[in-house]
Amino acid sequence: MIEVQGVSLRAGQFSLDQVSFKIESGRYAVLMGKTGRGKTTILEAICGLRRVVAGKILIHGTDVTNWLPAERGVGYVPQDLALFPTYTVQGHLEFALKLRKWSRQKINDRTSELAEQLGVTHLLDRTIDGLSGGESQRVALGRALSFYPSVLLLDEPLSALDHDTRQEIQDLLKSLTNAHDVTTLHITHNQDEAAALADVCYQLREGKVDTMETNHAKAASR
Amino acid sequence: MNDARQTSEPKLNDTEATRSSLNAERGHRSDVPFFVVMGGISSCFVLLIVLLLLADLRFASLAEFKAALFKPEIRFAFQLTILSCTVAALLSIWVATPLGYLLSRYRFPGRTLIDTIVDIPIVLPPLVLGLSLLILFHQPFFGWEIEAWFRDTIGFPITYRWPAVVLAQFSVACAFAVRTMRVTFDQIDPRAENVARTLGCSRGQAFLQIAFPQAWRGMIAATTIAWARALGEFGPILVFAGATRMRTEVLSTTVFLELSIGNLDAAVAVSLLMVAMAVIVLVILRMLGTGLTS
Known about the structure:
The complex is a heterodimer.
Chain A: E1 2-11, E2 14-23, E3 28-32, H1 39-47, E4 52-59, E5 62-63, E6 74-77, H2 89-99, H3 104-118, H4 133-145, E7 151-155, H5 163-180, E8 183-188, H6 191-197, E9 200-205, E10 208-212, H7 215-221
Parallel strand pairs in A: 3-8, 3-9, 6-7, 7-8
Antiparallel strand pairs in A: 1-2, 1-4, 4-5, 9-10
Chain B: H1 2-25, H2 32-59, H3 62-69, H4 72-105, H5 111-123, H6 126-138, H7 146-154, H8 162-186, H9 190-198, H10 203-214, H11 216-232, H12 235-240, H13 251-260, H14 264-293
């Protein structure tokens, strides 16, 4: 569960005041809104990379507002992916696991399972140079999901992809988030993406977050 | 209709006029003056440097060069130069990496001030820097003196000995190394470090595991620049370490000492040796530079 309670944020000239919304455990939420309205800033606040001026952020009922990013257990895929230039694909998938001091055996099991789910097994020994857009996106997703986070934050994960790859990654997102039972917040400005993926859809408009009904929700209520 | 034709006729004439004037324009433009002027001005400087080197080479004969390099004083100076420059460069990179990283990544109170302080050794006249070092080490602070403390408590005097050479070189070289490291970290995307922090890294781990492995080229460049600056250092060494033969004499001091006793041949021979060392450093930098862009 992700709960944002009356959060105010500042980023240079830009500011957001009193933003509130709540995503139930295991749901796939999509946050929509035009570019430059602060969607990314909200994501950064949830994963702890941006200081909150006022308000609270709760993950599974625990107030994590003043926690370090490392302590929050949030999987984060930024828009530019920010892959690690000196690491191989395998290195990306095991990065968080090594930090958590998993045994070599457990790390190997987890990374091969993850690589299979992501369809990147043949790339494991490659560095990130020369990966295609879709491949990079898979690696970034795997890196974020490797340590079984309870919350996954996706910043426009499909925006830089061509039409076919977009469809592939969209299906992958659906199956992966189901398999990991992770509470997901996905940012986009694309209506189709929201319609295809969202259990619940929010709209960021003039600094306020409103709930929008989605096809999924409609289908569920029927 | 008539009106229309009347208005269209002049248009036709316009086009013809343009065409004929286009032909008239042919051959009037040339890029030659541009290249002559720009190239002429630029070549002045290049020519000056080439002439300097040629003049040195022409002045020194191979026999004199060999004779100078086999003088024990000059051999000592060569060894001390290599050692002191290396120590100063290694010290510089140790300081420059964390300082460059902090200046590149964080906006903290007093950052501009620190940024300016780091640049002071670059703009300060060298003799003034040496004098300041001398004063710092011999100025009593409430009856306590740095030089006396090093000499009496640690048993390791600084002033007028080789440590003073290293410290004088380090003071300037480090400033250049910090500049280089800062640019290096500016060019490394901090987003990857941020993502690493969400994956479980502390800031320290993010620095060591993500930023540091990407910075190695910059670190080699910074060390090389620091080494080259240390090689050229003269003023502060003269004041803070003195110019004692077989004790604190480095190659730049040798040139000065040989000149002051009128031994121009030896001075030029040592100069050429330093030119060769500087060229080697430049080549290393260039190789790294092309590696960076490819």
